[in-house]
Design brief:
72 residues, alpha+beta, 4 strands, 24% strand, globular
């Protein structure tokens, strides 16, 4: 959990989404396969455990907020 708090602390250094409107779709990669990701109020446990990252499907910017896998 501490690792995630550190990661979120660097959000100022992330490149912002350049899409209009922002964050039109999110994805993550697991075992080389793209998986649909969705914004959430809290970070999903599996995301924090495996230190996964979500990206904008349009511009590829890293999503700086809490998210989870669409299948969960």
């Amino acid at each position: 959990m501490l690792r995630n708090m550190f990661r979120w602390g660097r959000a100022r250094d992330l490149v912002p989404c350049t899409c209009e409107p922002e964050w039109q779709g999110l994805y993550t990669e697991i075992d080389g396969q793209r998986q649909l990701a969705l914004p959430r109020d809290e970070m999903a446990t599996v995301v924090g455990y495996f230190d996964l990252r979500a990206y904008c499907a349009g511009c590829g910017a890293e999503y700086p907020k809490a998210w989870g896998l669409a299948s969960q």
